[in-house]
Amino acid sequence: MKLLVNFSRGKGRKPIIAQVVRDTGVLINVERAVIDSSEGEALIDVPDDQCQLVRNSMTSLGARVRMLEHGIHFNEQECVDCGACISICPNEVFSFTPDWKLALAEERCVLCGKCIEACPHQALMLPL
């Protein structure tokens, strides 16, 4: 399961993800991270059966954690199957079916948002 983790660096440079790996023994795959001098956001992937443990551990360290059950949201009624999202996606989330309809591999999505900007019909959006 994917977790979106937000944290403040106001109290120092604590290695939250490393601390959680050490404390829980759960291996965490960091799929995307944006960190500056004051705050950070990381999209991580953890085994489904360990999700709550990781979430609780991160929350106890001061992070805000949101479980993401879905990747990018896709509005099939707005989509015209143009393929603009296919060419821009760094993780090959999008592809065409044999009958030239857009298909998604949601589990590959790292929520970078590039497809949203590329979509001429605004058929894609980040999960709320």
Short précis:
This protein has 128 residues and is an alpha+beta fold. The chain contains 4 helices and 8 strands. It folds into 2 domains: 2-68, Alpha-Beta Plaits (2-Layer Sandwich), CATH 3.30.70; 73-125, Alpha-Beta Plaits (2-Layer Sandwich).
Tag the structure with descriptive keywords:
4 helices, two-stranded antiparallel ribbon, 128 residues, Alpha-Beta Plaits, 4-stranded antiparallel beta sheet, 2 domains
Question: How many domains is the backbone divided into?
Answer: 2
Major sheet summary line: 4 strands, antiparallel
Strand order of the largest sheet: 2-3-1-4
How many helices? The count is 4
* Distance between the ends: 16 Å
For the secondary structure, the number of strands is 8
* Cα Rg: 17 Å
Kindly describe this structure.
The protein has 4 helices and 8 strands, in the order E-H-E-E-H-E-E-H-E-E-H-E. The protein is α+β, with helices and mostly antiparallel strands and 128 residues long. The chain folds into 2 domains: 2-68, Alpha-Beta Plaits (2-Layer Sandwich); 73-125, Alpha-Beta Plaits (2-Layer Sandwich). Strand 2 and strand 3 (39-45) form a beta hairpin. Helix 1 packs across helix 2 (51-60). The protein is elongated, with a radius of gyration of 17 Å. The protein starts with a strand and ends with a strand. The mean pLDDT is 89.
Topology, element by element:
Blueprint lengths: L1 E7 L7 H9 L4 E7 L3 E7 L5 H10 L3 E5 L4 E2 L9 H5 L5 E3 L5 E3 L9 H5 L5 E2 L3
Antiparallel strand pairs: 1-3, 1-4, 2-3, 5-8, 6-7
Helix pairs in contact: 1-2
